[in-house]
Design brief:
Arc Repressor Mutant, subunit A; Rossmann fold; 221 residues; 4-stranded antiparallel beta sheet; binds calcium ion; 5-stranded parallel beta sheet; alpha/beta; single chain
Length: 221
């Protein structure tokens, strides 16, 4: 099933879009909050995102920019208020794949969604390789020398985040923010335990510790 994230803080519009998408066979997850949208899009895999721009806590443009900065490449359709062309330009600049002015016909949203999904499927694969370790973001799978590992969701988030950010030292606090849900507060001890477990499962050197700075998966950025 094609998993789509729908971000909209207007309850009536959210309900309408959700109903239509589900009737057309999409698996829809929703949120009305910018912070939560950013976290979901950053830590989970979606085939596409429908993103309203005016959102509480963190606006849609900021959400989109953060995803793109962090190499999240899923196609994003931005919903803008009618006639606000500067918003559209900003949206495209921030990395939107398409935009739709409100109000719009549901048929048009469906058509645009099909179009971005088709375009995205034609793009390069979403594989990241670091030595003998391969990350497949579509299948949410990590393999070592071609053999898939059995990782928990937490372990997968840790490995995928570090591999997407390869070549850069990721500070502990940043890593924790991305690996754990934003409303839980694990201590740095828990992170060390998690990293130890992941290293044992990997069985190869992938994650290096930079004492006092954080962790890094070495490699070209
Ligand atoms: Ca809004």
């Amino acid at each position: 099933m094609t998993r789509v994230l729908l971000v909209e803080d207007d309850a009536a519009i959210l309900r309408d879009i959700r109903t239509v998408l589900e009737a057309n066979g999409y698996l829809v997850e929703t949120t009305a909050d910018g912070e939560e949208a950013w976290f979901k899009g950053d830590t989970e895999e979606y085939a596409a995102v429908v993103l309203d721009l005016g959102l509480p806590r963190l606006d849609g443009l900021a959400v989109l920019k953060r995803w793109r900065q962090n190499r999240r490449t899923m196609p994003v359709i931005v919903l803008t208020a009618r006639g606000t062309w500067p918003e559209r330009v900003e949206g495209i600049d921030a990395g939107a794949d398409d935009y739709l002015g409100k109000p719009f016909q549901m048929e048009e949203l469906l058509a645009r969604l099909r179009s971005v999904l088709r375009r995205h499927a034609g793009q390069a694969t979403s594989l990241i390789e670091c030595g003998s370790v391969t990350l497949d973001e579509r299948q949410m799978r990590v393999s070592v020398k071609g053999a898939p590992l059995a990782l928990s969701a937490l372990e997968y988030r840790l490995v995928s985040f570090l591999m997407r950010n390869r070549g850069r030292v990721v500070p502990q606090h940043e890593l924790m923010e991305h690996v754990y849900a934003h409303d839980t507060e694990p201590d740095s001890n828990a992170l060390e335990v998690l990293i130890g477990r992941v290293r044992r499962k990997l069985g190869v050197d992938l994650i290096e510790t930079r004492r006092g700075f954080g962790y890094i998966v070495p490699g070209p950025t």
